[in-house]
Amino acid sequence: MNRSQISQIKAVIRVKRHLKLANKFSGGFIKFDKTSGKIAKVSKKTEIIAKAYVIFQFVVIIVKIWSITAKTGNLIEKILGIAITSLSTTVFLLRYHTTSAQVQVQFLNYIFFSEGDENDGKSKFFLTYLVLFFDALEFSYYSTCAAHWLMVMFFTCQPGLASSILCSTDEVFSYGTIVKSVFVLVESYAFLQASVATGYHLVTVLLTGVIFLWIECGDFIQRHQMEIAHQIEYRRVQALEKLLNACTREQIFLKTAMLIPTCQMMTSFVAVKMTHLGHDLIAVALMWLYLMTLAFTLLTFSAAAKLYGVSQKWITDCKGTGRKKYARKFQRSLRPLRLEFGNNFVEVLTPLVV
């Protein structure tokens, strides 16, 4: 067993763990089935519970919005409240999807459990980064949940927090510790549950898919240059690309491209504000979240752009090399690999928000 295979096994272990976390917090619609040894859809009962939590999170966000519109306060508090609510709303929108999970099941089973050619040593580095990102992501779940918990504890009457609806005009929460603790638990758990579900869509499906597609493309080009792979095998890489786009194009990646920049800006603003208020622990947790979203953006978009550029260069180099008519016709039909979001796709010149 080479190092690349070991790295892939570690990646599979992380995916299983995060699927288990998503099911534990009722944030996902797929699971790892120990009986079949593959990824499968959750039961109908679990799916209903997960949908119920979506409604629960939606209600929490409505209350947050109400807390901003109903209360009168200074401009800074309003802006901070809007930022906090925007962050929660962004996470909710990223986790909310109406597409079927069956395509995601097929895709994840294909990249992890289908038999294929052995990857070279270079793929080990990509998979190692993916494993580290999964570990950092799990830490982010709990650190941001703790930050949310601390915000409700110390800023109970801050607009943008559900607890502020029970505060008096003098910004005094007079309903006791028990009621306050209930708000702490509700808001923290709602954010944690939404974060776990969002992490599944963005990292387990999107980022993992992009990295494996990049590895598959790189391996094919290397084998073709060594003359142990025919050009027709490029269709296999294209099939993986189509499957990934079927999972992410309409909702996951489209929402990512639209909402992640908002998440980064809101997170950094709230973190800076917490620093000014002297709550460094909350600020550190939020800055960690900012760095995670930044790292995710750079990894995903850079890998997708690199994928497009590498495949385009290979196609350009191949054109004109075929001597027979059918070979030239096949080469003209080739197109670069594209990671699509909506009607657009990522290329080298796609701008990033940092």
Automatic annotation (TrEMBL):
Keyword Transmembrane attributed: yes
Q: Does the keyword Transmembrane apply?
A: yes
Tell me which domain of life the UniProt entry assigns to the organism this sequence originates from: Eukaryota
Ordered alphabetically, the record's keywords are: Membrane, Transmembrane, Transmembrane helix
Membrane-spanning parts: 48-69, 75-94, 125-142, 198-215, 252-275, 281-305
This protein is called Gustatory receptor
Query: What is the scientific name of the source organism?
Result: Folsomia candida (Springtail)
